[in-house]
Write a structure and sequence with these properties.
Layout (H helix, E strand, L loop, with lengths): L2 E9 L5 H19 L2 E9 L4 E7 L2 H17 L6 E16 L8 E8 L4 H8 L4 H4 L3 E9 L4 E7 L2 H15 L5 H5 L1 E2 L4 H4 L3 E8 L5 E2 L3 E4 L1
Parallel strand pairs: 5-11
Antiparallel strand pairs: 1-3, 1-4, 2-3, 2-9, 4-6, 5-7, 5-8, 6-7, 9-10, 9-11
Length: 221
């Protein structure tokens, strides 16, 4: 089963975040790819100056190899001095939903659900009613069974405007107490100050394709 890993780093380096992540892509990404099992790798710049990466692997074993490779490179990388690992979210991908396989991800939102329901049940509930998934501009969603027992929904969009429209649809749906999502889970919204730490996609890569530049922003909410 595919395995998802999100790693967030706080702090600031000697250079810009974009410069640091350019080095990550040129020095770390090839090693991760060589280790095997990497399906997708994304580097992100956070509004507060921090950086992050999200990775999708073929399985948990390949993710563990990737983490070991990353730890070795990061421990020796001078260009990452000043950054500190602040948060790790990981787990098995219960469902990948390609809303528009040809769309370019430019913005994203992660929602973390505290629930006794499984990630599969949450994925099913997300699609009811279909209005939320029907909003034009959605690109991709990974629904992940996180190792801490929560469920993560990681979605990407073609713009911030699209993400905002989807968020409004979600609020409308969750206001209905009879909706599946209202019954199954509550969303852990971060405080305003934390939610402001949105991130921008620096670069995204598939293991079998050349790196493509983008502008994804991802906020945890």
């Amino acid at each position: 089963m595919a395995y998802f890993v999100l790693r967030r780093y706080s702090g600031r380096g000697a250079g810009s975040a974009d410069e640091a992540l350019a080095k990550v892509q040129s020095e770390l990404f090839p090693k991760l790819k060589e280790a095997g099992g990497l399906l997708r790798y994304t580097t992100l710049v956070m509004d507060d100056g921090g950086i992050a990466s999200s990775s999708v692997y073929e399985n948990k074993e390949s993710a563990r190899r990737g983490v070991e490779v990353a730890a070795e490179v990061v421990s020796k990388a001078r260009f990452l001095q000043g950054y500190k690992l602040d948060q790790v979210l990981e787990g098995e991908v219960a469902r990948r939903i390609d809303h528009n396989a040809q769309g370019q991800a430019k913005y994203g939102v992660a929602r973390i659900f505290k629930t006794n329901a499984s990630a599969t049940q949450i994925a099913d509930a997300m699609a009811v009613p279909p209005d939320v998934f029907a909003v034009p501009g959605r690109v991709r969603t990974f629904v992940v069974q996180l190792t801490d027992g929560r469920v993560g929904g990681f979605s990407s969009f073609d713009s911030k405007d699209t993400a905002d429209r989807v968020s409004e649809e979600i609020k409308r749906v969750r206001a209905n107490q009879s909706s599946p999502m209202s019954k199954l889970a509550r969303t852990e919204w971060l405080s305003n100050s934390a939610a402001a730490s949105s991130t921008r996609l620096a670069r995204e890569a598939k293991a079998d394709r050349a790196i493509r530049k983008g502008g994804l922003s991802t906020a945890l909410s």
